[in-house]
Amino acid sequence: ALAGSTGCPRVSMNYRNEWPQLTGNYVTYSLAYDSYVKNISGGIGLIATHDQQGRGTISTTMIGGIYSYNLRINRKFSMMAGVRAAYFQKYLDWSKLTFGDMIDAKLGFIYKSADLQPNRTVSAVDLSAGILGYSKSFFIGGAVHHILEPQESFYPAGDSRLPMKITGHAGAVIPIGSGGGRKRRGAPESSISPNILFQKQRDFIQLNLGVYVTKGPIVGGLWYRGRDAFIMLVGVQQGFFKFGY
């Protein structure tokens, strides 16, 4: 739904290396482009991701197209609704897998496994949709990913569908400090921004609670992910430029 929300062309690049100290870490690359198009009253976008699990044992490549429609309800409140159609392919590197029947008690892995090798690739179409309502001081929205629950099994007779994921999120920007947050001559703007993110995918539920504090160009943030993690952020934003860690 946020495609085209900046009003000008935008390029986003992401890199994530999760659990790098483990031998089976997850590495994800992402590249996206979106822009507002006045003739269609909304935004268009392209997104591509590449994900490696277990040092490339399973690799997933996805490319998708996005369209969002922007509807201005009144002078203070607007809504955006978007859809994404994507094509993904998973690849299994069978040579990186080891099985119990390959082990000799003295010599280690010397035998060939009797396990039957499945198809090395599986591909499917994946559809998602989202909606967002926002003003200058708050936003609320939701999204549904993997609407068709595409098949991921490498075995032709197997059944391993990618479960539908439901996301809900909301946040606000509250001015703080003297003057109600209005920018005075020589004084930087200050604000506090509470946020909530809820995600559910089959039996997995995740709730993130967070807050950002902004003073002039400096931004600090702290999130709590239910029962297992804290997320900290510090950054600088100046006009269209943002940098955070």
Textual characterization of the structure:
Helices cover 0% and strands 59% of the residues. With 245 residues, the chain is an all-beta fold. The radius of gyration is 23 Å and the shape is globular. The model has no long low-confidence stretch (mean pLDDT 91). β13 and β14 form a beta hairpin. The strands form two sheets. Strands 1, 2, 3, 4, 5, 8, 9, 10, 11, 12, 13, 14, 15 and 16 form a 14-stranded antiparallel sheet that branches. A two-stranded antiparallel sheet has the order 6-7. The chain has no helices and 16 strands.
In short:
This protein has 245 residues and is mainly beta. The protein has no helices and 16 strands. It is globular, with a radius of gyration of 23 Å.
Strand content: over 45%
> What level of helicity do the residues show?
under 10%
Q: Could you tell me how far the N terminus lies from the C terminus, measured between alpha carbons in angstroms?
A: 25 Å
* Low-pLDDT segments, ≥5 res: none
Order of helices and strands: EEEEEEEEEEEEEEEE
Global mean pLDDT? 91
Number of strands: 16
Estimated radius of gyration: 23 Å
